[in-house]
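Hi C.,

You asked whether I'd gotten around to modeling the 225-residue construct. I have! Everything is below, sequence then structure, no commentary in between.
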Amino acid sequence: MLEWRRKISSRKGASSWGTSIRFSQTLGPARPPGSQCGANEAHEMFGCFIFEIARQRKRFDRNHENGYNDHHTPPRRLYMFNLDLPIHPSLVHFPIALLVTGAFAVILFRFWRKPQGESWGVISLLTGWALTLPALVTGLIDKNSIPADSPAAQVANLHTTLMIAMWIVFGLALYFYYMWKKKGQLAGSKVWIWLGLLILGVILLTLAGHQGARLVYQMGVGAAS
């Protein structure tokens, strides 16, 4: 049984650090972090060793099922500059908030007949649509780090497909809005087509966000081990 002990020896104007190993029958074996082995007797050392093997094996199997085949380390991610700040999770919330808020504002102020409020909703939609592009690019980079044969990869593919479809739908809605408004044709059935595209875009965004949440909270992709 090993006990690691740090000794500090101070001298005038200098200090030295050393590590010593000594055997102890009273303090019991050194335990790794998270271990539940509480052995204080020498004959329990073998049982504690077997327990640690089983614990690490269970942890490895759980992470392997989630798509991590390099011990229990999550896939590498794209980080912002030299900071411990992943780019994709930092970017996705802005377009989500802007697109959902803009869509509801446009629908509300269209029926409330408030053109100024509708214009602010369109600006929110345009900003959110533009910010979706860097979120998509960084998400694709992160997706490449997931093993292709893992369950997480299937969910990531669905998440990516829904996000691209959502981006196209919102892009069409904005294109039709500016084209029809410029020609003075934004009325009648064309208004319903435009609002229908906005509602479809919000539905696709909700489904895509749900799959992204599954990747993080159910499968542990990008989460600390």
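If it helps when you're writing up: Confidence is low (pLDDT under 50) at residues 1-35, 68-76, 78-84.

Thanks,
B.
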